[in-house]
Design a protein that fits this description.
It is a multi-pass membrane protein. Helix content is about 35%, strand content about 20%. The chain contains 12 helices and 18 strands. The radius of gyration is 43 Å and the shape is elongated. The chain is α+β, with helices and mostly antiparallel strands and about 500 residues long.
């Protein structure tokens, strides 16, 4: 029987060592993803972090010191295995202890004798009946069953501890405490694993792509977030960071420079009323890292925009965080999201159609960067102001076929700056109508001599033989993704 116990212990030791090796290989494996993956990203679309902690000193000891968090973080199959092995090993170990107690007291030897030998043994001790430490323990299997019944307080009634052995009473108390501790620990691990807020984050959705389009004349980066559950996220707020390479003024290379993006729901702050899918907007202004990027630059740049949605789960009160990311290839320039919320008159409810959650459509959007767009707008505005300031006369635009004369039938008052002219000029126009109501400078008119009174010299309006190039406003109207004509981007 002792040989059997020794063999069982050796097999259990080998089994435990093998399971621990497999457990550590699973826990500390280098990567969970194929090495053939081409795209480099820090955060995957489903929210997992693509970072492996390597070459950590005393890593196994540190993980085992925080065994509760380790058991919560590992996969379910390993948690269930540890759960089962804790109980089985405790039953086997304490079963061996009960067997040794019975063996040391002589119970195993006594119950394995025949009835005649038992009577002779009792007569030799001058006792009427033999009292064992634990009744009905005559083998290792019976000791194992008694250990199982004691730890889980099953109590079938055939096996029980007597007053004969104080060590048996001590082991009974110790196993009862140990059984409660193991049950509480493993139930806590399973409950914490089931109620993790990470699972709640699986029902928080991010759009497959981000888009860049104009809103109120300002280029904006937008993506959509949604919650498919009826229980809402309380105090929901969103964050975004751009991760890219940067070289400082001192020449230091920062391969993963993180910069915060100012985002908000529909252009407001980052707190959301998260009752339906919401558009998160980042205004591309002078403070934005995307201010200098055009549509063509977007295809060449290497960066990653990491988005995070945080809040308190209404049903459990735990804080959860959902993550996603967007590469430059996942940002659609000149697109806008379709609306997913509609009102049903039949039921009087607002309905969210998640089949349209990732749908976009093209819109007229400049292909140049926000910086170039701002500069061209400023140039166009300054050019318009300069035209008005440089115009000495307030004359409507006249084509080159129209001449200026001085008949007395039609007149137009011309007031040069710093001079007050008393004469009147007459415009001879075809059909007596102005072809265009826009005001222009003299640089756009043919050379003409205007007759001025004797106290002034004749005024010559400069001519321009070549056609004036298109103005900035004309170019702005053509810098679109739909009709990219004469694009300077």
């Amino acid at each position: 029987m002792c040989k059997l116990v020794v063999m069982v212990l050796i097999l259990l030791t080998l089994l435990v060592n093998y399971l621990m090796i497999v457990f550590y290989k699973c826990l500390y494996r280098q990567t969970r993803f194929s090495s053939r993956r081409v795209r480099k990203r820090v955060i995957f679309k489903h929210g997992d972090v693509n970072v492996v902690q390597g070459n950590v000193a005393k890593r196994r000891r540190r993980y085992l010191q925080d065994i509760f968090t380790t058991l919560v973080d590992i996969q379910w199959r390993w948690t269930i295995l540890v759960f089962a092995m804790n109980f089985i090993l405790s039953w086997l170990f304490l079963g061996v202890v009960w067997y040794l107690i019975a063996y040391a007291h002589g119970d195993i030897e006594f119950f394995n004798k025949s009835e005649e030998e038992q009577e002779a043994y009792q007569k030799s001790l001058n006792i009427s009946s033999y009292t064992p430490c634990v009744t009905q323990i005559h083998s290792f299997l019976s000791a194992f069953l008694f250990s199982l019944e004691t730890q889980h307080t099953i109590g079938y009634g055939h096996r029980y501890v007597t007053e004969q052995c104080p060590e048996a009473i001590f082991m009974l108390c110790l196993q009862s405490i140990m059984g409660v501790f193991i049950q509480a620990f493993m139930v806590g691990v399973v409950f914490a694993k089931l109620s993790r807020p990470k699972k709640r984050a699986q029902t928080l959705l991010f759009s497959r792509n981000a888009v860049i389009c104009h809103r109120d004349g300002v280029p904006c980066l937008m993506f959509r977030v949604g919650d498919m559950r009826k229980s809402h996220i309380i105090e929901a707020h969103v964050r975004a960071q751009i991760i890219r390479r940067k070289v400082t003024k001192e020449g230091e290379l920062l391969p993963f420079f993180q910069q915060e993006l100012l985002v908000g729901a529909d252009g407001s702050d980052d707190r959301l009323m998260f009752i339906w899918p919401t558009l998160i907007v980042h205004r591309i202004d002078e403070e934005s890292p995307l201010y200098n990027l055009s549509a063509q630059d977007m295809l060449k740049e290497r960066f990653e925009i990491v988005t995070m949605l945080e809040g308190v789960v209404e049903s459990t009160g735990m804080t959860t965080q959902a993550r996603s990311s967007y590469l430059p290839s996942e940002i659609l320039w000149g697109h806008r999201f379709e609306s997913v919320v509609s009102f049903k008159r039949e039921t009087g409810e607002y309905e969210v159609d998640y089949t349209l959650f990732n749908n976009t459509y093209e819109v007229d959007t400049p292909l140049c960067s926000a910086k170039e767009l701002t500069e061209m707008r400023a140039e166009s505005q300054s050019q318009g102001e300069a035209d008005q300031n440089n115009s000495a006369f307030n004359i409507h635009h006249i084509p080159s076929s129209v001449s200026l004369e001085t008949p007395s039938e039609r007149s137009a008052s011309i007031e040069p700056s710093n001079h007050e002219l008393k004469s009147c000029l007459t415009l001879n126009l075809p059909n007596g109508n102005l072809p265009n109501s826009r005001k222009t400078s003299f640089s756009s008119m043919p050379a003409t001599i205007v007759t001025i009174p004797d106290d002034h010299e004749p005024l010559t309006i400069p001519s321009q033989t070549q056609q004036e190039p298109q103005s900035s406003s004309r170019k702005l109207s053509k810098l679109s993704i739909i009709d990219p004509i004469d694009s300077i981007c």
